[in-house]
Specification:
Elements (H helix, E strand, L loop, with lengths): L16 E6 L5 E6 L2 E5 L2 E6 L3 H9 L2 E7 L6 E12 L3 H16 L10 E12 L11 H8 L7 H13 L3 H14 L5 E7 L5 E8 L9 E3 L3 H9 L3 E3 L2 H14 L19 E9 L2 E10 L7 H27 L19 E7 L4 E4 L2 E5 H17 L3 E3 H5 L13 H15 L3 E7 L2 E6 L2 E7 L1
Parallel strand pairs: 14-20
Antiparallel strand pairs: 1-2, 1-5, 3-4, 4-7, 5-6, 6-7, 8-9, 8-13, 9-10, 11-12, 12-13, 14-15, 15-16, 17-19, 18-19
Helix pairs in contact: 2-6, 4-5, 5-8, 9-11
């Protein structure tokens, strides 16, 4: 029998599979499956959601046949199966649930488009279907080699990645190095890093690469989209063929009346990503953040990519945590050098409004930032207006009781990076410029009118 583990590419859901069953009295039924999941060398799992007829057939007659397609070679294989059991918890069920929930959340159906169970089947036989071998003139192995890119995770690439991280002297630079290296050495051109905030159920986008808008400061709740689901489960999630699966989810939702337009959650990053890979950044079970990589190619992330990036995720998490601790422990209160006035061009007048109840700041009526970054910016603006202060230290902000930093893990450095990048993107007239370890300069290139509202 063909080894089941050799069909890894068939289990990515890129090409729908066919599930064929037969009732106890001999009536056949065929249904399209979005996914067949590999469990071990002798078993696969099929999702139990809407296939009531197939489910009834299997309960009467436990034999089934599934046709799976290799997206690299278009070779079709027939899997002859025997139903074993249905799981409603455990690692197999959880992996399938997370992938379905990620797709459902983009269609506004999180918590509604549910996985009822993971049906486990024993694989009795694996056989190729010779009349559907794909394009003629080349063997399946030759076609696979022609389609698959070279594995980028070479020792040389990993060594250069490590050296780049070691040379990054600040957290700000470290975040850029991580995303730059993912593109330069590994070919992942669209990526983002989201870090945990002072709120226990939220992530904030702090760095991104490859997008028209950086999106720094965007918030994602745990359980929302692929980043939120990775954070909630603390497990990697890989999705291939997203466009087809989202169309399927929307079609089902529309048919049963569960997808009003105003409940749709817009996709972050690429307008129509075809593949996404989310990796949790963990240090000793502590979640630091989430790395998300996406692509417009339907089958961009192979099993090797997920495995290597999962290992890299632990290393990146340690590097980010180390940078945070290093910047905090190396802060000083030395007298800063005199700052020269920056040439910021012609000054205009802007209104900066702080809303106390929502802890958010609007600039000329447009949203800028909220929560702790908003409180920090308002503090800087007020001190500049009242005392003319332009030089600040992280330590000074950390000890300021009005900001109400948590006693531990205040993440001030990441808050300042987020604020600086958000200002660069949305309000370049206000600048935060690092002037040394644990210190920064506050520059205004406009006349600022401060307004505080309830």
């Amino acid at each position: 029998m063909i080894p089941l583990e050799s069909l890894t590419a068939c289990f990515q859901g890129l090409i729908p599979s066919w599930l064929c069953t037969c009732s106890g009295d001999g009536i056949p039924n065929a249904a399209i499956l979005s996914h067949v999941d590999y469990v071990d060398p002798r078993h696969v799992a099929l999702s139990f959601q809407f296939f009531n007829k197939s489910k009834r057939n299997v309960m009467e007659n436990p034999k089934a046949l599934v046709r799976v397609y290799d997206p690299d070679t278009f070779q079709v294989h027939a899997l002859r199966l025997r139903y074993v059991r249905t799981e409603t918890e455990g690692p197999v069920f959880e992996s399938m649930r997370l992938r379905i929930e990620a797709i459902a959340s983009y269609s506004g159906l999180k918590g509604i488009f549910k996985l009822l169970g993971a049906d486990i089947y024993e694989v009795l036989e694996v056989s190729p279907i010779p009349w559907e071998v794909g394009l003629p003139g080349a063997s399946c192995e030759e076609k696979r080699k022609a389609r698959l890119p070279d594995v980028p995770f070479t020792m040389k690439a990993l060594q250069e990645f490590s050296e780049g991280i070691q040379r990054a002297t600040t957290l700000d630079r470290l975040l850029d190095v991580i995303l730059e290296t993912l593109e330069r050495h590994f070919g992942f051109g669209h990526s983002m890093i989201l870090l945990c905030t002072e709120r226990p159920d939220r992530l904030e986008l702090i760095a991104s690469r490859g997008y028209a808008r950086a999106g720094v400061g965007s918030e994602v709740g745990f359980g929302q989209g692929i980043a939120g689901l990775v954070a909630e489960a603390r497990k990697p999630i890989r999705i291939s063929g997203m466009l087809r699966q989202m169309l399927y989810a929307n079609a089902v939702a529309t048919q049963v009346g569960l997808c009003p337009e105003n409940r749709r959650i817009p996709l972050p990053g690429l307008a129509n990503p075809a593949s996404q890979l989310g990796i949790p950044l963990l240090v000793r079970d502590e979640l630091i953040g989430v790395l998300v990589i996406e692509s417009e190619e339907s089958y961009r992330f192979h099993e090797e990519d997920r495995t290597y990036l999962e290992v890299l995720g632990g290393y990146l998490a340690i590097a980010i945590q180390h940078a945070l601790l290093k910047e905090r422990t190396e802060e000083t209160e030395e007298t800063p050098p005199p700052a020269s006035e920056p040439a910021l061009g012609k000054r205009r007048r802007i209104e900066v409004a702080y809303y106390r109840a929502d802890e958010c700041i609007l600039v000329d009526g447009e949203y800028l930032v909220r929560s702790m970054p908003a409180k920090i910016l308002w503090k800087l603006l007020r001190e500049h207006a009242e005392q003319g202060s332009t030089e600040f230290t992280n330590r000074r902000l950390r000890l300021d009781k009005s900001l109400q930093f948590p006693e531990f893990k205040d993440n001030l450095e990441s808050r300042l990076i987020l604020l600086r990048r958000r200002l660069e993107e949305r309000c370049p007239e206000i600048r935060i410029v690092q002037s040394g370890r644990g210190r920064f300069r506050f520059d205004l290139g406009a006349e600022v009118a401060l307004v505080e509202r309830p």
